[in-house]
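hey can u check if this looks right to u? its 650 residues, i copy pasted from the old doc so theres a chance i mangled smth
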Amino acid sequence: MTVSNYACTSANRGLRQRVAVFQHPTLSTPGANFYNHAPTLERLPNGHLVAAWCSGESEGSADYHILLSRSLDEGLTWSRSENIFDPAGDATAWAAVLFSQGERLWMILSLAGTPGSGKDLSSVDLYLASSTDEGQSWSPPRRIDTGKDRSYAPLHKPVLLSDNRLAFGFYWRAFGDPQTHAGVLIANNDLSSWVSIGDVWIPGHRTLEPILTRENDGRLYMFLRTDLDHVYSATSQDEGKTWSTPTPLPIPNADTLSYLVRLDDGQYLVAWNNHPGVRDYLSLGIFSGPDLSELRDMLPVRRQDQRTQAVSYPRVLMTADKILLIYSVLDDGAANRRSGDIWFESFPKALPVRDGELKLDQRPTGVNETLYDVTFSTPTRGWAVGAGGRILSSSDGGRTWTTQTSVSTSDLHTVHFANETAGVVLGDGVVLTTNDGGAHWTSINISANVIAAAFVDDTTSVAVGSRGEILRTTNGGVSFQLTEHCSCNALFDVRNGGTNQMWATGAAGTLLHSRDRGLTWEQLWLKTSEDILGIAFDSTGQRGLAVGDHEVMFSSSNGGASWNKVSPLREKTADSAIPERLKRVVFNALGSAIVISDQAAVWTSSDLIHFTRAQTKSLNSFQAISALGERVFVAGWDGRLFRMDLGSVR
C-alpha cells in the first residue's frame, strides 16, 4: 500500500499520512460496479485500529456484506480485508458503528431482507455483535428491539448519560413511507437491554444519520443529515426524551453524513463536505461550540478529481496527539475503474496553519438562496441575482440590500444595468428586463441556460450557456439571436477585452475569441483539460487572466494574442495542497487581478505572476465577484454577500 506524507508548516510541524485501507481491484467487466462505502473506525486499548465497511455490487444489493481490516501501526499499513458478515439468501448486512468497552469490540449493524431484486428493502432490523480478538471472530448477531419500523443503525459512538447508560442516535421510517424520524437508542452499561426514546423530524424532508454529543451541563445535541442544504440540529434538556424543533446550522450539507466530535475544551471538530449539493471538498473544521457559529480553523482534506464522483462519509477518532479520519472515495463507475475505495488519514491534533487570513465585511441580505452575480451601475446603485428568481438591490454602495419583486422562479445567473433604470437579467431559460430600476420586470423565455453575459454598450450584449450556446441582443434584451460558433462544450464566462474584442471560456480548456462585438467567433484552446470558469481583462484590454478548476491560470500581456500558463508563486501550506476551483476573476481600478475560489479564498496579484492567497473564515462557496473602484464585492452560497476594501495588492 502506498503512503503519501504531507509536511505541515509553521508551529504545527508533523506528518500528515494518507493510506488506502482498501482498493477494489481494477474491473475487467465493462459496466461492473463494485461498491465499498460507509467505513467505521475504532481504536482499541492497545492502540490497534479496526475498520469495517459495506461492500457489494451496489448499495443495498443482495450481495451486500461487511468487510473488516486491522492496523497494528497506527494506520500506516492495513491487513487484507476479511468478510465478517455475509447473510445468506437475499438478506444484506450494513456496517454501522464500531465501539469498544474494555477488551471487547462491539458492532451495531443493520440486517435487511431484500426479496426479489435485492434493492427493495422490505425490512431493516438492528443487531449487536461483539469480538474479543480484534474482530477476527464475532458472536452471533443479537437483535435489538427498537419498537420502530425499519430501524437504521447508529453511525456514531455512544454518548455517556448521567446514569452511565449509553445513548446512540438512530433513525427509522415505516415501509412505503418516505418520512424519516430520528431518535435515541439507550442501552444499559453491559448492552443487555435497550429502549428507544425521542422523535425528531422535519415534515416532508429527510432527517437521517443523527449524531449525538453531550455538553457539560447535560444537554444533548443531535446533528442531522438533511436534504435541505444544511446540517440541522436539535437540543434535549432531558437526556433524549424530548427535543427542540430542528434548526439549520451554518455549514453546508450535501445530503450526506457529517461527523461531529466534541473536544475536551468545548470546541467541536467537524468532518463534512464543504460544498453545497455535491459530495466534494471533504474538510475538517474547528468550531467554537455546538451552534457551529464561529469557524476557528479549517483544513480541506480531499476533493473530487476527473475520476472521482464523491469523497464522503467521514468518521473521526481523536487520540492524545492525532486526528484519525476514515472515509469513502467513489469513482465514476466507468469500465476498468474502481467504484469504491476506503481511505485513512491522520493529522496532527492542531490543524496545520493556513495561508494569510482575510477579514470579510459581510453585508446582510436577508435571503438564503445562492447568489450568482453582483454588479453596480454607479458607486451607490447595485444589484445581485441568484437561485429561485432572487433579485436584490442596494442604493447605498452595497452597505444594505433589499429584495425586489421577481417575475421568475428560475435560477438567475447574470445581471447588468446600463444606468440606474435600464437593466437585464439572464438565467435558466429566461430573460428579465426593467426600465424603472427593478420596480417592475418583464420576462421572456429562451431555449438556453445562460451562465454569464458581457455588455458591449447600453443595448448590445452577449450571453453564453451551459450547452455551448452564444446569444446576442442589440435591443437591450427584448430579443436574442443565437450566434454561430464552433464550440460544443459548455461555456462558463464571457467578457470584453478591448475595443470590439470579446472572449468566452468553457469546458476542457475552451477559449473563444470574437473581433466584432460577438457576431462571429473563432475557436482557440488553452493547453489544459481543466474547465476554464472565468476570464477578465484590465482597462487597457492588454492584460488578461483566465482561471479554472484545480487552480489552473493562464495570463496574457498582449490582448489575448498569446496565453501563458501561470504557476502561482505562493507558499504551499498543507491546506492549499488540495487545488481549489477558481470561479471568477476581475481587475480593480488599480489594475490588480482578484480571483475567487469556491472554497472562500481570495487570490490577488498585480503582476499576474506572484499571487497572494488569503483564506477567509467563511464556509461560503464564492460564486460571483464585482469590482467597484478599489472596492470588491463577493457573493455566493447561502445568500451571503461580502465587501472587501483591498486597495493595491501585490
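The chain is about 0% helix and 50% strand.
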